[in-house]
């Protein structure tokens, strides 16, 4: 059985047995907060428990490295929607130790792309479109600095309200311990 078939089979039972009822909530966050964090598998259940949040408490956005890399990209748009339309009054950006984006070099990813059939012409097309592929695929060297940079991009965004605190934290992916990088109340 393929993974999608397993998921659909489980989902049929989940709905039939009304297991969704325990997750009932509204689209607005109870704790009026939006969290940007990494897509790391170790954080799926650990992060909410370490933050003491449950379904309905926060808006949760995930990407590789909890990075805000472009002021007008989808991550920034999602943060602005959460603040302006979905009643989030605070922003948390949470990176983590031992992140796959830490020290990641674009040449390695590009080589994997080539091995899976992507041609130099495909990479060139992106470059000709005005995207510096190496910069776009680059990771970071220091998680605390990366979090602080993302906090700064969000806080200084011309459309982010000045009264919205933007906090930066780093979580340990084994213990859930949170280290404060930026206290948004101080800014």
Strand content: 15-25%
**Unreliable segments of 5+ consecutive residues:** none
Number of strands: 5
Q: What is the typical, i.e. mean, pLDDT?
A: 96
Using the alpha-carbon principal axes, give the shape. Answer: globular
Main beta-sheet strand count, sense and barrel state: 5 strands, mixed
Largest sheet strand order: 2-1-3-4-5
Task: Using the CA coordinates, give the radius of gyration.
Answer: 19 Å
What percent of residues adopt helix (DSSP H or I)?
Answer: 25-40%
Q: What pattern of helices and strands is seen along the backbone? A: HEHEHEHHHHEE
Number of contiguous helices: 7
- Class per helix and strand makeup: alpha/beta
CA(first)-CA(last) distance = 53 Å
Notes on the protein architecture:
With 187 residues, the protein is α/β, with parallel strands linked by helices. 38% of the residues lie in helices and 16% in strands. It contains 7 helices and 5 strands, in the order αβαβαβααααββ. A 5-stranded mixed beta sheet has the order 2-1-3-4-5, sandwiched between helices.
Can you give me a brief rundown of this structure?
This protein is α/β, with parallel strands linked by helices and 187 residues long. The chain has helices spanning 3-16, 43-51, 74-84, 106-115, 120-128, 133-137, 143-155, and strands spanning 33-38, 58-63, 90-96, 166-171, 178-182.
Note the topology.
Elements: H1 3-16, E1 33-38, H2 43-51, E2 58-63, H3 74-84, E3 90-96, H4 106-115, H5 120-128, H6 133-137, H7 143-155, E4 166-171, E5 178-182
Parallel strand pairs: 1-2, 1-3, 3-4
Antiparallel strand pairs: 4-5
